[in-house]
Amino acid sequence: MMLNGESKMQTRKASGYMEISTKVTIAGVELKNPVMTASGTFGSGMEYSEFVDLNRLGAVVTKGVANVPWPGNPTPRIAETCGGMMNAIGLQNPGIDTFVRRDLPFLQNYDTKVIVNVCGKVERLAEEPVDLLEINISCPNVKEGGIAFGQNPKAVETITAEIKKRAKQPVIMKLSPNVTDITETARAAEAGGADALSLINTLTGMKIDVHRRTFALANKTGGVSGPAIKPIAVRMVYQTAQAVSLPIIGMGGIACAQDALEFILAGATAVSVGTANFHNPMTTLEVIEGIEDYMRRYQVSDIRELIGCVK
Q1: Hey, is 178 helix, strand or coil?
Q2: 25-305: CATH number
Q3: What are the helix (H) ranges across 15-152?
Q4: Which region holds residue 206: left if phi is over 0, alpha if psi is between -120 and 50, else beta?
Q5: Sign of the CA dihedral 102, 104, 105, 109?
Q6: Is the pLDDT of residue 13 over 80?
Q7: pLDDT tens digits, 93-111
Q8: Would you please indicate which residues are annotated as catalytic (active-site) residues?
Q9: Alpha helix stretches (DSSP H) within the chain
């Protein structure tokens, strides 16, 4: 005989099963859990949907979208490094018209929040089914000057304020780690009216092929990501959490639940899984399950109890 809902709950309680809440809120948008994808590592979810149940994710963060198609940088554009990888993709994307026609309708089939990473005009998305906008002001792999104003606090404040005037959805500013003091740009984004922050983007690096005696990437430099940068990212999230009152989405080298929990304990409201998706498409789901196991193991009923609890 099947148990009804009440009987199931009684059985769970009798067996020591603990009800938990993994819900978090970013700028008024509630996520079922704090785990999302990092822009540029998950497409718009189409490629991964046969491996990952997108309904289980807190949010899908799309690859960067520009107002017109961008071809990106010449190849080679990816290189392995110790404990991670380097990329110089250059924000290759098909443009916002294709994104709105093809990708957004696909994402509407799933019960997950949609965060669009924008590297162009935000007005085009004003009436689209998008929950949050992540503004890319910190990509180190393009020559359009994004990294320059992403490193300048005054420019960050100005561009944030201008975007806020035009955006209908809440705005997340994605910060560059390639600065002397991450709290300066964080405070500038807050002063400009940002609703949330995401950090960190990749660190600028270089790799040389000693056998060919040339650069491993055609762009010469690229963004370093993966486990090797995690301690730097955790430190920057902690510093930023002490400096501003905005919710933070932490990222940088997350490959398991323990990694994600480090960011949450340091002050992140949510986390993004990036590079790990390339070698293990199931990473996001493993992180979600691992966080739930941790909460039950340590008798944490609400994940909000963990956010920023390490001082």
Answers
A1: coil
A2: 3.20.20.70
A3: 96-98, 104-107, 146-150
A4: beta
A5: positive
A6: no
A7: 878 888 999 999 999 999 9
A8: 139
A9: 5-14, 96-98, 104-107, 146-150, 153-166, 182-191, 230-243, 257-266, 276-279, 283-297
